[in-house]
Amino acid sequence: MKILIADDSRVMRQIVVRTLRQAGFGDHDLVEAADGKEAFEMVNSEKPDVVISDWNMPHMTGIEVLRQLRAAGNNVKFGFVTSESTPEMKTAAEGAGAEFFIVKPFTAERFDEVFAPILG
Asked: Does pTM top 0.90 for this prediction?
């Protein structure tokens, strides 16, 4: 499977990649986007199976990316890894069709719990 990791922090993208590997998902094809606009474009060009997105990013937020993808009829599996977590954010994510919501800091065990059903 191909996984798109969207976060404006290069360090955080690297942490997500490392945690995916620690959780046993390192054999998947991992691609990265540095902001929301790039993430939206890469979903269309790279055709990932899963998108792991930050919530706050320049040009387009993660929730804007998700909403625009769904509005365009794209049903890629999409979720958030974010440092902010409010009930409103979780409700908005679920309402937009997010499959998961992981709060930073996270662990390999949390990734395994969330991604095992999705990535197999």
From this structure: yes
